[in-house]
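Box 3.1 A note on notation
Throughout this textbook, protein chains are presented in two layers. The first layer is the amino acid sequence; the second is a token string describing backbone geometry. Keep the layers aligned when reading.
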Amino acid sequence: MLIHLLFFSSLFLVAQSKNNAKSTVQTLEVQPQYFNPKLPPRSLSASDKFEGSSDLVNLRYHMGPVLSSPINIYLIWYGKWAASHQLLIKDFLLSISTFNHRAAPSPSVAEWWRTVSLYTDQTGANISRSVILAGEYSDHLYSHGTHLTRLSIQEVIANAVRSKPFPVDHKNGIYLILTSVDVTMQDFCRAVCGFHYFTFPSMVGYTLPYAWVGNSGKQCPEVCAYPFAVPGYMGGGGPAALNPPNGDIGVDGMISVIGHELAELSSNPLVNAWYAGEDPMAPTEIGDLCEGLYGTGGGGGYIGQVMRDKQGRTYNLNGRRGRNFLVQWIWSPVLKACAGPNAVDK
């Protein structure tokens, strides 16, 4: 449910090796070059399913709904946003349903979402692979100030529904609130980088699934935009930060958190569907199980093998319009392991 920060208790993670050979940009004709700076010892990565694989993970279905109908995303931009940053995030969201391999070559965002779509409800209906950007609303005047709480974020949604021809789409809609770099949030950086829940009818009038993600670029990039920034205590001889695929630590970091929260919101929208643990108020969900894993060989604090372009920018997924993204893997109910389309041993 949350991007937990426990991951950073083992933050001696893999980072960019200065001695790696240059790699080529992925095209339709050229296979991407993989690199994994400071791979873990072979004894840790010998298994094809080392990446978070476990028969002990008790991920169970609790009979609640999943988002099996076409998913309509209603975007709420809270604060001041550069148009280029908005376009980058929208390109990621629209890449989820970009199935044409010429428009988004493999490994693609759409292939990454395929793992999410393996989850079903009690009727056997899968999470939808159709994700649509159904509407946008800009709250550029900071209607609830520059510090938000878990309750005031619901007031932001209510304000958007009242102020914009945003339908109250309680069947297919999810509401994604993205806060700008100057906005603080309750528990942001300390305990969460993003979270999802559902609105209270007493505040919004309806029960609507929503997710919030903040831009950590100036507040805690070493926590919420890792591995594009590293904690100060890892300086000196520690691993170096990786270069973000689109040149912005805060927004590139947000995109992986957005992917994490959308995957969990789709598989556990009312916090009564897919999760591990006995407490629905503190569930371990399909993104939590793979936090910090981006490629083969990951685990034990290593992000795994990823790719980089000629400029040294790191990514593991291709999107529409030539975009590249670095997005964490998701727990597969079939493999019972973390999975992603950039796996080199699949």
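Confidence is low (pLDDT under 50) at residues 6-31, 37-53. The first helix runs from residue 42 to 45.
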